[in-house]
Design brief:
Elements: H1 4-14, E1 21-25, H2 31-39, E2 42-47, H3 50-62, E3 68-72, E4 84-93, H4 99-102, E5 104-116, E6 119-129, E7 132-140
Parallel strand pairs: 1-2, 1-4, 2-3, 4-5
Antiparallel strand pairs: 5-6, 6-7
Amino acid sequence: MMTPTVEGRLLQALALQGTERVLEIGTGSGFMTACLAKLAAHVTSIDIHADFVNLATDKLAEAGIDNVELLTMDATQALPDGRFDAIAVTGSIQTFDPRYVEALAERGRLFVVVGDAPAMEAKLIERTSEHDWLTVSLFET
């Protein structure tokens, strides 16, 4: 799980305005899913662990959050169809996967932590055109 500070920085970095279609990779407990859902029009959240998805489904329903679709899916193998205005990868990855940028709509934003512990790097990536993107290093974790 991300620390609350990193979760806050993720939400700040994505700068959601309330109209976005968001993909969350790593549902976990559903906490970040709920935060994203309050700030965006729709959230699709995926997790490789069905038990996480099931628990998050119950928690989100209890909280009355209904603009979320939860899927059991392995993001290293496939992503949901369509393009997203924002993508939040809530776990770290060793090496950057360009498929995540390909799933962004033009001007879409991706938050991801890349590298190996103990020094990993949080990045914000914006898709600037069909075949190009801009990467900004935000902080080390």
